[in-house]
Each structure stands twice: as structure tokens, then as C-alpha cells.
Amino acid sequence: MPxxxxxxxxxxxxxxxxxxxxxxxxxxxxxTSCAQAFHRLRLMVAVHECAExxxxxxxxxxxxxDGATVAAGRxxxxxxxxxxxxxxxxxxxxxxxxxxxxADLAGAIRRHAEAEERHEWPLIEQIxxxxxxxxxxxxMTVVPDLVEAPDAPDRAQRFDQMMAWAERKLRxxxxxxx
Length: 178
Prior knowledge:
This protein is mainly α. The chain is built from six helices and no strands.
């Protein structure tokens, strides 16, 4: 059976659950474990959001009269979360300031995911062109593989470097999928 928009949102849903799990892991750990968990979360968010910016938001923008507004809202939320991550990278993971800022970031990420699910997913689920759904599905399913890639950015790299790396890798993946 050819893929549909619902298949695409199912993959995104799985990634959202993983991000929530990683947020919880950062909350539940301290010291080096917390730093490692925060790195993993930053990398997952970078790759996931980059993939969405390449295939999900542009397609959502085309799916309805207000699609561009919906997609622009989600992209703005992603930029704001990126700024929060940037600020957190300056803090020590064990500091009270980190914990307070991280709680704000966690809330922003959760609200963003809920907004995607409420406003953008109905547009994506309308996709009835199997080719479009297949291309989106192929790129979104690469996300976990990139997070695990041997050449993935390490803890020393900043979020903007992770985003740039993710965009290069995803653009290459998109070309090879076509």
C-alpha cells in the first residue's frame, strides 16, 4: 500500500516521543550523565527540526490557504527553541540556572510539538499523492540514523553547528532518495 500523510505524521510522532523521553532523561540525571543527555537531546532536536524544515513545513504551506501561516508559526517556534538551546549551551548542566532555563526549553518544545500536531498535521494528513508522502517519509525516517551516525557532532559542537551538519546530511540523503 502506498504511503500517506498519516504515515508521515506517525514517524514524526515517534520522534516527538523520543524527544520527550530525552527531555525527561536530562531532568532525571546529573553531572556527566546530564551533559551527555543534553547533547543527545540537542542533536535529536537539530536533526528532527532540520528535516521538518526541508520537507514538512514547505508541504504544509502548500496544503491550505492558511498553510503558509501555519508553517511559518512552527518555524518561528523552532527558531525560538534553537535560541534557548544556544543560551543553555553557555550554562553548566548542574547549575540552578541551567535547570530553570531547561524547564523553559522543555515547555517550549512540548508546546511546539502540540502546535504541530494540532495545526500542521491535519494539513500533512491530507496528502493524497503517494510520491509526496513517500519523499517526506523517506527523509523523516533518516533522522534517527543521523543521530546515531559515527560522524555526528560531538558534545563540544554548538547547536548551530549541529543544524548545519544536519542540513548537509539531510540534503545529501534527499538527493540519494530521489
